Amino acid sequence: MNHFYYIHGVLNAEGTIVAELALQYGTPLYIYSAKTLIQHYDAVDNAFAGVPHITCYSVKANSNIALLHLLARRGAGADIVSGGELFRALRAGIPAERIVFSGVGKTSKEIREALHAGILMFNVESLMELERISEVAQQLKTTARVSLRINPDVDPNTHPYISTGLRENKFGIPMEDALEAYELAAKLPGIEVVGIDCHIGSQLTQLAPLLDALERLLHLYHQLTAKGFAIRYLDIGGGLGITYDTEEPPHPKEWGAAVAKALEGLDITLITEPGRVIAGNAGILVTEVLYTKHNKDKLFVVVDAGMNDLMRPTLYGAYHRIHVATEIYKRPMVKADIVGPICESGDFLAKDREIPVVFPRNFLVIFSAGAYGMSMSSQYNSRPRAAEVLVHGEFHTLIRRRETYEDLIAAEEPCLDEMIRDDLEHIERILR
Ligand code: LLP
Known about the structure:
Elements: E1 4-7, E2 10-13, E3 16-17, H1 18-25, E4 29-33, H2 34-47, E5 53-58, H3 65-73, E6 77-80, H4 83-91, E7 99-101, H5 108-117, E8 121-124, H6 127-139, E9 144-151, E10 173-174, H7 178-187, E11 191-197, H8 208-226, E12 233-235, H9 252-262, E13 269-272, H10 276-279, E14 283-295, E15 298-303, H11 312-316, E16 322-324, E17 333-339, E18 348-356, E19 363-366, E20 387-392, E21 395-400, H12 405-409, H13 418-431
Parallel strand pairs: 4-20, 5-6, 5-13, 6-7, 7-8, 8-9, 9-10, 9-11, 11-12, 12-13, 15-17
Antiparallel strand pairs: 1-2, 2-3, 4-14, 14-15, 14-19, 16-19, 17-18, 20-21
Helix pairs in contact: 2-9, 5-6, 8-9
C-alpha cells in the first residue's frame, strides 16, 4: 500500500501533483510520502506486537535525517553499520538504547563512538572484532553488550550481491564455530554477551529461508542457555522484500505470526532490522526526458537521472517500474532503453522497456526508489546529488536541497600552497 496514485492520468503523491513538484524543485528529484513510510513502519512494528520487540530500522536503506526523525517519533530503533549512521540516528532523536551496530568492518573509532553513546549492542561478525571491542571497552572502562552474528548457511534465493547468510558470504560466524565463539566471548573482559544475531539477505520474497534461519538460531539459543548464557535478545535481521514488478512477498503480518509462534514461551526481546520494506515503496525518483534518439533499431530515451542517482539497475540488473508522470491522453507504447547522461554504457535505468512515447521535457517516474536509491547515490561525473522532498498530507518540504557545484569541491583544497607549488616546479624542471 502506498500513496502514489494516478488521478485521470496525473500522478499524485498524497494528493500533491508530482509534475508540479518536479517543476518547482527541478529534476532529478526524489519524492517521499510520509504517510507511506509511517504505514510501512507500523505494519512491521505491529506485526510483532505479540512479542517484546524493537523494530530497528536499517538506516542504510535511506538515511535522510528527516525520514529518520519521522521514524524516531514512531518509536523506531536503528540498525547502523557505521559511525556516520550512528551520528545520523542520534541526531534524528533515536535513543541510543534502541540502536544496534552491525557490519563486518567496525573501526576502533566507531566502536569508541558507539560505546560513548551507550548503544544497545554490537552485532559482532568475527573473533578479531570481538577482541577489538573488548580492548576498546577496557580502555574506556566500560562494558560492551554484544550479540554474535551467526551465519546460518541458508539460501535466501535472492540476488547474489544481496545474499549474506550463505557459507561463502563474508558475513557472520559459521554456525559450527558458534559455541566456541560464545565461550571465548564470555571470557573476554569488557564484553557482556546478551544476544544472537543473524541477517541472511535482502529482497526476500519467501518466508521459508527466514524461518529456516530462525529455527537454526533457536537451536543455538537452547544450547547456549543450557550452558548458562543469559541470552536476552534475538536479532533476526531484515530482508523482507517488496513489490518492484510482479513479486508477491509475504506481508509482515505473516512474518510476525510465524516468528511469534516460534518464540512462544521464551523470555526474549526480539529485534528486527527492516529497511527496504519500510522505505522502498515510500519513494519515487522523478527525471526529465532530455532527448530521444534512434541508433539503428534501438530507441534511447536520454533522461537527466543517471546511475549516480539510482545505481540499482546497473549494479544488480534491478527492475524499477517506470511510467510518465502525466498521461492525460493515451500514448502509444514503444520499447526503449532509458539511459542517463553518464559516460558509461552501464548508465541505464531500464533496458528494452515498454513505455509510453515520450518527448523532451516530459517527466518520467521511477517507482520503488525510496530504499537504496539516494543512500547509494554519488557525485560521479561531478553531478551534484539530487534534491529530496517529503510530501506529508497537503504539504511538502524540501528535506535535502539539491547539491551545488560548490558542494562538489567543498571538501577539496583548490589552491596549492607554496610548498607544493615549489615541489611541482622542481619536478617539472627535472622532467624538462
Ligand atoms: N540488517 C543488515 C545487517 C543488513 O546488512 C541489511 C541490508 C539490513 C538489515 C536491511 O535489509 P532490508 O530489510 O533493507 O532488506 N543495496 C541493495 C541492498 C543491500 C542490503 C544490505 N544489507 C539493494 O539495493 O538491493
